[in-house]
């Protein structure tokens, strides 16, 4: 074996040992890993109550697709469902239904409707900032529309809230 071949064998051997040592080294968990582990193990203080309505139950109450608009479901989880409203391929609003009794801890989201003088389709309503309008259906379900484009106004939000199947939603238990 020549000196040149011996160098190649030693170099390959050292490289293999270095790769083995670095690949097998354990890395200390980051502060994010630790926080994720702690929150995953927590049983109390969860954001959604066990008796919250399944999000998939809400889909049938959303307004159907209308001429010029497209409804695209984006999120569905226990106690909540959401869809984007698009016009000409552009997001103009976000539609959502949430179970206010499904929220645990903190303030009751339905409380903001108690002193409301505004009603839409016979249900108490509130405007939240300049881009959000919500109603409370059956003292339990918040139906909310958030504008994502300046062309989708408060009157548009109010009109679209009335397109939900609100009577059907009020009977959901």
UniProtKB/TrEMBL annotation:
* PROSITE patterns named in the record: PROKAR_LIPOPROTEIN
Alphabetic keyword roster: Signal
Q: Signal peptide location in the record?
A: 1-23
Chain residue ranges for the region called Disordered: 34-60
Give start-end positions of Polar residues composition bias.
Answer: 34-45
Its name, as the record gives it, is Lipoprotein
Q: Which organism is it from?
A: Aliterella atlantica CENA595
